[in-house]
Amino acid sequence: MTSQLFELNPAEFIFASFADRDISDQLPRVFGVEGDGQRGVAQARQFWANLQLRWDVPGRDDAGATFVTGPFSVDTAGFDRFVATMEVTSDVTFALDVEVDGAWHTLAEGVCGNDGRMETDAALPTRAETLAAVRLRLRKHTPGPAVVKLVWFAVADSARRDLLLEPKWTPDPDWPGLLLPAGDASRAARPSPATPGAGRRRTAG
């Protein structure tokens, strides 16, 4: 499917938004547990602000699961970064792969969750032209079910982003005259005497 890009800011564009139910429901996806699929459970459930991935294999503390979304047709000309925004618990590690120009590339591996919202920002393959799919390889490291919440996948232009993050002004390092002693500061902050008659309430009639 041809992907529409949604501007997050002038340097970053979302192509897979899991925070919008209407868009998320249209994204092709497959989610399942690794290995013992008959005993394992994998569910992808849409919530109001994310897509929740939940999986478990009873009796296994290291159950893995794989989430794949695509096919897409994301024109990556002018973009050199891939950004995944998710909520990942600290008992989960993950790897992130993308299919670009007909080949799979691993962008991140062995990333540990931080019990909150996190962004994984990784370089796209050099001279990438078309991004076709994203694969997330998940692994939990504690007993019981694990949960990961997907928010969005995006592409970014790092040069433009650096320009946006540049400070627009530089503080004046020459402080004399800008800092006053406490007494002077209190006098400077004191309002000037009001003009006679100013501030009086006027009544009609």
Tell me what the structure shows.
By secondary structure, the chain is mainly β. It has three helices and 13 strands, in the order E-E-H-E-E-E-E-E-E-E-E-E-E-E-H-H. The strands form two sheets. Strands 1, 2, 4, 5, 8, 11 and 13 form a seven-stranded antiparallel β-sheet that branches. Strands 3, 6, 7, 9, 10 and 12 form a six-stranded antiparallel β-sheet that branches. The radius of gyration is 26 Å and the shape is globular. The protein starts with 5 loop residues before the first strand and ends in a 16-residue tail after the last helix.
H-E order:
EEHEEEEEEEEEEEHH
Main sheet record: 7 strands, antiparallel
Compute the separation of the termini in Å: 72 Å
What structural class results from the helix and strand content?
mainly beta
Mean pLDDT: 86
Quaternary arrangement of the chains shown?
Answer: single chain
- The total strand number stands at 13
> What is the tally of helical segments?
3
Measured on Cα atoms, how large is the radius of gyration? 26 Å
Strand content: 35-45%
The percent range for helix content is under 10%
Broad shape: globular
Q: Low-confidence parts, pLDDT < 50 over ≥5 residues?
A: 194-205
Features:
seven-stranded antiparallel β-sheet, single chain, 10% helix, 205 residues, 3 helices, mainly beta, six-stranded antiparallel β-sheet, disordered C terminus, globular
Topology:
Elements: E1 6-9, E2 12-17, H1 21-24, E3 29-33, E4 41-46, E5 51-56, E6 64-69, E7 74-75, E8 81-88, E9 92-100, E10 103-112, E11 116-123, E12 130-140, E13 146-156, H2 158-165, H3 182-189
Antiparallel strand pairs: 1-2, 2-13, 3-6, 4-5, 5-13, 6-12, 7-12, 8-11, 8-13, 9-10, 9-12
